[in-house]
């Protein structure tokens, strides 16, 4: 048995590593193959090499099935987190228009056109006959001022990708 392990270890590891493309996982899967080998009754096996590679293929298939389940679970978790955020985003979105109205007129107008009406910055510059760079910078400054207004009103806790996890309203500002 020990001779079998030493003679088949490198070829099996190479075979697995080529298919999973992660040497740490390949190492673990190779160990799993030899664990399975040690627990098996080899008396009925006629072609040991064929049997060993069949076991290896099955372990690789199980590996990918497990990965697929992990990905599905992560996707479900993400969808749940996103749907939970919908109510929070809706509540905070009710504050956007009143806050925009508190901004200086030139910032308020540009932010409303771009963020609320969905007009591109280039279209706004053409429509209002304002330099495109000016429109871009005023929208950025307007966003900063809007963030400052939100910070005065609410404490917003964000997740890893900027998603809103929760918020607490400091005052009755909106």
UniProtKB/TrEMBL annotation:
It holds the Pfam family Sigma70_r2. Residues 100-146 form the RNA polymerase sigma factor 70 region 4 type domain. GO terms for biological process: DNA-templated transcription initiation. Residues 5-68 form the RNA polymerase sigma-70 region domain. SUPFAM superfamilies: Sigma2 domain of RNA polymerase sigma factors, Sigma3 and sigma4 domains of RNA polymerase sigma factors. The keyword Transcription regulation applies. InterPro entries: RNA_pol_sigma-70-like, RNA_pol_sigma-70_dom, RNA_pol_sigma70_r2, RNA_pol_sigma70_r4_t2, RNA_pol_sigma_r2, RNA_pol_sigma_r3/r4-like, WH-like_DNA-bd_sf. Keywords: Sigma factor, Transcription, Transcription regulation. The keyword RNA-binding does not apply. One of its GO terms (molecular function) is DNA binding. PANTHER family: RNA POLYMERASE ECF-TYPE SIGMA FACTO, RNA POLYMERASE SIGMA FACTOR SIGZ. Belongs to the sigma-70 factor family. ECF subfamily. NCBIfam families: sigma70-ECF (TIGR02937). This is Sigma-70 family RNA polymerase sigma factor. It comes from Spongiivirga citrea.
């Amino acid at each position: 048995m020990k001779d079998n392990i030493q003679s088949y270890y490198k070829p099996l590891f190479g075979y697995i590593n080529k298919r999973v493309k992660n040497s740490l996982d390949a190492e673990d899967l190779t160990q799993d193959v030899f664990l399975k080998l040690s627990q098996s009754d080899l008396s009925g096996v006629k072609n040991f090499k064929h049997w060993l590679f069949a076991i290896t293929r099955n372990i690789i298939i199980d590996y990918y099935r497990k990965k697929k389940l992990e990905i599905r679970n992560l996707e479900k978790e993400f969808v749940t987190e996103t749907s939970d955020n919908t109510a929070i985003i809706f509540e905070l979105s009710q504050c956007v228009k009143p806050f925009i109205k508190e901004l200086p007129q030139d910032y308020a107008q540009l932010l409303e056109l771009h963020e609320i009406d969905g007009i591109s910055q280039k279209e706004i510059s053409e429509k209002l006959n304002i330099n495109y760079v000016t429109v871009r910078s005023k929208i950025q400054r307007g966003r900063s001022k809007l963030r400052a207004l939100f910070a005065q009103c609410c404490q917003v806790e964000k997740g890893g990708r900027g998603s809103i996890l929760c918020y607490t309203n400091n005052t009755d500002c909106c």
